[in-house]
Amino acid sequence: MELVRNEAKNAEFEKRARELVAQMTLEEKAFQMMHGAPAIERLGIKAYNWWNEALHGVARAGVATVFPQSIGLAATFDEDFIEEVADAISTEGRAKFNVQQKFDDTDIYKGLTFWSPNINIFRDPRWGRGHETFGEDPFLTSRLGVRFVEGIQGHDENYLKAAACAKHYAVHSGPEDLRHEFDAKVSRQDLYETYLPAFKACVQEAKVEAVMGAYNRTNGEPCCGSKTLLKDILRDEWGFKGHVVSDCWAIKDFHEGHGVTSGPVESVARAVNNGCDLNCGNLFIYVKEAVEKGMIPEERVDEALVHLFTTRMKLGLFDEKGKTPYDDIPYTAVDSEEMQALNLRAAQKCIVLLKNEGGLLPLDQSKIKTIGVIGPNADNRKALVGNYEGTSSRYITISEGIQDYVGDDVRVLVSEGCHLYKDRISDLSQGRDRNSEVKAVCEASDVVVMCLGLDSGLEGEEGDQGNQYASGDKPDLNLPGRQQEILEIAYASGKPVVLVLLSGSALAVNWADEHIPAILQGWYPGAQGGKAIARILFGEENPEGKMPVTFYHTLEELPEFTDYSMKGRTYRYMQQEALYPFGYGLSYTAFAFKDVKASAQTVGKDGVDVTVTLENTGDRKGAQTVQVYVKIEKEGTPNAQLKGLKKTELLSGEEKTVTIHLPAEAFGLFDEEGKLRIEKGSALVYVGGQAPDARSEKLTGQKVAKLALTIE
Questions:
Q1: Taking the model in full, what pTM does it have?
Q2: The domain 7-329: what is its CATH number?
Q3: I want to staple 178 with a disulfide (CB 3.0 to 4.6 A). Which of 54, 182, 423, 551 is the partner?
Q4: Which residues are catalytic?
C-alpha cells in the first residue's frame, strides 16, 4: 500500500511546533529533550514520556498480545503479514494510550513513541540480542522493517497511529559486554552493502518517524554523536525528517566508556551538535549549561525541539480528542478474540520444519495411546516470549498445548528432564536427577517430544535480569546444561523422537540432525506458542516458516565475534556448508515451480519481472515463499543474494502465477567507496522455495530454477 502523507499538514504541524518552541525558556527546552519530558502548564504542554517498546507487542505496560519474538516473525518470510501484526500492535498501543490519558497516567511505557523495530543485522549467532532482529539478511530485514513501520504508523494522511523507531543506528550487533566502549570498525563497502540498507529503506520508503543511535562507536565516532551517521548519511544523503533519540544512557558512554570527550557537558554538546534530538536518560540536563558556554548554538536546540514537537503533533497530542481517527479505539480492542486468533496464526506461520525423516510428522493421534513430553522448555513460559515482552492474559506452553490438543484420548506424560542450563534441578541432588524419570517416560510412551533450546534468560541484552552468562551473549552454539544428554537418552529408548527447539538464534544441533528423525525450530513463538506447536505436530496446520538466519555446524568456522567485516559471515559470504541454510524450511506438502521466466533477457534501467507458476503437488493445503536470488557473475562478488520474495497459499492441486519485480538496483553491488554500481556483465537469477546452495538442495531434494541474464 503506497504511503501518502499530507505534506501541507506536516508543514502546519512544524509551524505550530516552531511557534510553541519560541515561547520556551532555555531551561524548559533542555527538559523537553529528555525522555521523561515534564509538563509546561503555562504553554498547555502535558507531561510526555517518550520511552515505549513494541518489539513484538506492546511491552512493559500491562496486558497486551504477546506475538512471536521478531526473529520468529521474520521466519514467516511474509511482509504482508508483518504489517498486519504491526497494525495490531499499534491498535493495542492506541487503545491503552487512550485510557492512560483518560486517567492521567503519563508514566514510562505509556506513550505512542514505540522504540521498535530493531533492524540491526544478526551477523553473529553469539549475539544475545539477535532474536530482537529480523535476521541476517539486509534485503529481508529491509522489507520486513518497512512493513512493520507502516503497520505501526498507519496509513492516515494527516496523523500517525503511533511513531515507530528504527534502531540501533548503526553497525551494532555485539558483543554486549563491550557495547559501552566498543568501536565497530567497518569498511564503506560493508557499511552500505550490509549495515545500512534496512535503515535507508525505513527512512525513505516507510518514512519512519524516529531513529535511535547505537551504544558503540562506528569507525571511531560514538553513534549517538556521529557526524557521519547522523548528519552526512541520515539527514543529508537520505533526507530524514523525523527525530533522533539516543540509546538509553548512551551519551554518558562518550566520556565514561569511549573516552572521546572530557565529561558530561562536552558529551552532550557532541551529541546535540551532531544531530541527536532526544536523550533516553537524563544527561541532557546539561544542555542549558552547554548553550550558555557557547558549546551548542541555541538554534540547534530549537531545531531538535521542532523535530520532537512535530512528532507529538503528528500523533494528535495537541489536538482536541476526536480529531485523530484513533482516539476512539476502545480498551476492549486489547487482547480481544481477534488479537488472539492473529497471534495463533503468527505462531503457526513462524515455525520451521527442519527435518522430517520418513514422514514421522504429522503425528497420527489415532495411533498414539501415550505421548511423552520432555525437556526444560516443555513448560517454560520464558521460552515462549523472548525479551522486550508484554504480559499475556494466558500463556500456552508446549506441554499445555499438547495436553489441550489431545484431550482425554491420549495419555500425556511430562518431565522437565533436566535444568535449562545447570547440571541438576535440585541443588541437594547428586546431579542428573531427572534421568531415571526421562527413561521411565520414554519407556511408557509411543512417541516422545523433546522440548529443548534456550530462553531469554540465556540470550538477551547486557544487564537483563537473570541472564546466566552475564553479558547476554552465548559462549557457544551447544545445547546448554544436560540437554544433549537427555536427548541421547530419549533416542536410546528406541521410541520415535521429535525435537522441538525453542531459541532465538542458531544452535549447532549436529548430533540431532544425524540421529533424530523430526526437528522443529519454534523460535520464541509468543503466548500462544504451545497451541501452535501442537497443531503443527498433529497436522492441523502445515509448517511454512523459513530460516531468517544460518544455523552453523560449529563456532570455529566463524570469524572473531568482534570482527565486523562480513567476510565469511552469513549465507551471503560464507564458503562452508551450513547445518541449516538461510531460506530453508520444509512442508508437509510439496510444491513445483514451473514456467520460470524473465520479462527480458537483458536488465535495463527499469529492471526485470520474474514470473513463476507455483503448484501444490501434495495432498494438503500449504504455503510456500517464492524466493528470488541474484548472483553477479564476477570474481570476488558475494554469493547469490535474496532480492525478491512472495508468500503464497495453495490448496492441494492448486496453482498460482507469481510475479516478482527485480529493480535494476537488485543487480548492483557496492564498491569500496560505498557507491552502488550496476555494471555491464551477466547475472544468474535463481527462483525457488530456498536458496541456491548445495546444502539446501540436499535437504529438500529440490533444485531451484536458474535464469541467465545480461546486465546493460
A1: 0.98
A2: 3.20.20.300
A3: 182
A4: 247, 459
